[in-house]
Hints:
Blueprint lengths: L1 E4 L22 H14 L3 E5 L12 H18 L3 E5 L3 H10 L3 E4 L8 H8 L2 E5 L17 H18 L7 E4 L8 H9 L2 H7 L4 E3 L4 H7 L7 H13 L4 E3 L3 H16 L2
Parallel strand pairs: 1-2, 2-3, 3-4, 4-5, 5-6, 7-8
Amino acid sequence: xxxINVTPDSFSDGGQFAAQKTSFSVSIDKVLRxxxxxxxxxxALLDVGGESTRPGARPVSEQEELGRVIPVVxxxxxxxxxxxxxxxxxxxxxxxxxAAGAGMVNDVRALQxxxxxxxxxxxxxxVCLMHMQGQPxxxxxxxxxxxxxxxxxxxxxxxxxxAETAGIDRxxxxxxxxxxxxxxxxxxxxxxAHLSYFRExxxxxxxxxxxxxxxxxxxxxxxxxxxxxxxxxxxxxxxANGADIIRxxxxxxxxxxxxxxxxxxxxx
Length: 268
């Protein structure tokens, strides 16, 4: 899954699709060039997000998010044969995204916003339910768990039940333990080491997103733009431990790493 952030403030690549430097509006041509490059490199999904969820991020209005996301989804759907995911928690963006050609909603709030469950159910899109402790504005303020595996799994179990009760068939669901969303480095790496726990408990596809995050940066002591090697290591470990979808910024390099892992597994 290739990351396409149409935001001015995402932690790694915010602002790269700005139409001009003085104010933020999305350049569809820039987005399409990046999308084409990712698909050519082997991305099976593209995740389009119009609201940054980095620690301390400010919320954006519904209209602002719609204005960023929907034209991009329409353009990608028109030009490329790829599954489009929308990284959103907003019911109207879910509904409009489905109409524009998206095939998946990737929600860091696990459809907890009012109206999100109903919008996702009506859309018939695939849904990824993610765990987050707190909200982006405060999630990294001393996150605490008695048992991070059990608490994340319990939350995801409850959200799966809520989704099914709302009319979302289980075949449409996948889960994400939410690396970096209300977790310390210790929590993150414990989740990564035991990722198969979630597959065993749910028998649902598992999505992970660790690309370029602080959990990588603090271990390798590198700034955001120098975390590729660490991100590739995390991606390989996640895939080896049962992850089905790897959400990344560096698609060609991650595809190469996955091919080597697949060849190894094939001959194991």
